[in-house]
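Tutorial sheet, problem 5. The two components below are modelled jointly, 742 residues in total.
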Amino acid sequence: MTFEYTLQKESTDTKARCGEFTTPHGKIETPVFMPVGTKATVKTMSPEELEEIDTQIILGNTYHLYLRPGHDLIEEAGGLHEFMNWNGPILTDSGGFQVFSLADRREISEEGVEFQSHLDGSKEFISPEKSIEIQMGLGADIIMAFDECPAHSAEKEYIKESLELTTRWAKRCQQAHTRDDQALFGIIQGGMHRDLREQSAEEITALDFPGYAIGGLSVGESKELMHEVLDYAPDLLPADKPRYLMGVGTPQDLFEGVMRGIDMFDCVFPTRIARNGAVFTSQGRITIRNATYKRQFTSLDPECDCYVCQNYTRAYIRHLIKRNEILGLRLTTYHNLYFLNDLMAKMRQAIFAEELFEFRENFYRKYGLEL
Amino acid sequence: MTFEYTLQKESTDTKARCGEFTTPHGKIETPVFMPVGTKATVKTMSPEELEEIDTQIILGNTYHLYLRPGHDLIEEAGGLHEFMNWNGPILTDSGGFQVFSLADRREISEEGVEFQSHLDGSKEFISPEKSIEIQMGLGADIIMAFDECPAHSAEKEYIKESLELTTRWAKRCQQAHTRDDQALFGIIQGGMHRDLREQSAEEITALDFPGYAIGGLSVGESKELMHEVLDYAPDLLPADKPRYLMGVGTPQDLFEGVMRGIDMFDCVFPTRIARNGAVFTSQGRITIRNATYKRQFTSLDPECDCYVCQNYTRAYIRHLIKRNEILGLRLTTYHNLYFLNDLMAKMRQAIFAEELFEFRENFYRKYGLEL
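Model answer (structure tokens):
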């Protein structure tokens, strides 16, 4: 079988776990952070650089690629891997989240979602079948079911109706999906309500997907609320399938997710803050534009082994970022992605060694986070 | 001696020549094109990428680096090589050209030039001594004398007075310059007047510099006028020293300069047009934004061996450029610089083989240029 998840290790004192997921473009060791390549490029990075920092899998956005350059063009190019020259695993989202973000410019029906393009206002329609058609054209290794992601503050009754619609759509996605070189993941919804999360998990897992995502988190709710849901939601999913928490990517969120049994994460956060000159370091996040760094001829993070930290100073990177030089954006992005890839690799080691608690404690203390 | 120019070959049917110039950071094989790294970075490129495409020497701009981040900061970092992590040869200009471009915001006296910074309007003063002080702080391998570059349309009398001022300034530069790990090049002026070019060359070469530049060309005059001056100006310079034509960098200008005895060139042209999506190909220049290329799944230039042409299609690069993705700017810049480096290497081969005429003819025919 092309897709196989192997659970390699379960931590005894946390719910963290290590695993391996096989795809047609290589194995993914979990827990894993997936950099986002919205428009068929992880902003500023070349594929070789992504490889160099041990990126295992990247994410592409169906909504953006559907509108431009179009999934038909990408299919003609031989698929997204070929188009962007990335030969590792790729995951595409369903487009659902982006479409629902359009707020007053979309209308949801049983059939699907009618919306106005954010680009030119043209009328577009995406149904579960259409989302799968697009994702089959793009040809990612892992694709996502088309779900509705309601606002976390929506009425409970609405969230219940919405999760039931998401279940019906999930079935239609499964029916529409015919490529056996792609794994279609299901998504559970249910907002911040435990009973609704349970209902959604029951309905979605009954459809037997090769992996599951927890949707509707990290959408504006408080950290406490997110952690509350994460305290039980992963347990509603089968242990022998990968679990993906969508839209999460700060060091703290990664730790908290991993300790609660999450295997996969994605977020634009590390790459977006990098382009604003903010970088992760073992001593906490720093904003390199700050005048403090003007004459600091040391690396971004003295404890980091990455190419950037081996070759460039804070003073130089600050100069580049202040002058809007592209090399500056490249260096901060490279470093931030290396930092997260490295962090996830170390978490894996710590899980195997049954030292995740101590590892987190040390990291938080130096990084300046409260436990 | 640290700096040595060896004339390796003189073409018999053109004035083209091959040579080698030794610097503390390595040898430069001439004729050579020097990519411009105005603000301590060749826009979009990493130092490793510059090396990968066999870049022999890069240029930094004294005016920009003096204003920001300041030559004192760069000196503190260990010099420009260390600051930007480029270990090959570097040339810095004198700042003169940028200062004179400020037009109505500068005033020239015997002492030097008072000007208002283009950034914040602050009053600044650069004299020959100051230019050399800055350039010694930056620590490039080759530095330039501070000259006046009058408008090509200026009165002949003004141009004569100006070139005489440039001579007096050249002497002061020589006196101020004390680093023996830097070669200070002289610059001849004289506008489009043969007698003034002769006078300037006589005065400047009498000072015995290790290399000479021809200034005041490619500043808005017609190609015919530039070629007219290039027909005799290089011959006014000693054959046993490198000759540098400042601000020139189209394929045609490189051919025409090389055939008239020029050894070194620099220009922002190839990198600037790259960021607008224009790329050199063996069939002529193309603008990749054009709709024609939307579904062309072939390389930028089918005859090119560079990393970009081996790995990416016109369709993908067009998509990136249209979406303002940084990787797009990286790929077009990389390709254009590779193209010029490769062109210069092939010109060298052709000079050695006494085939420069044929090589140019073939290139022009395919590129769509008239002979």
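Marking note: The mean pLDDT of chain A is 97. Full credit if you identified this.
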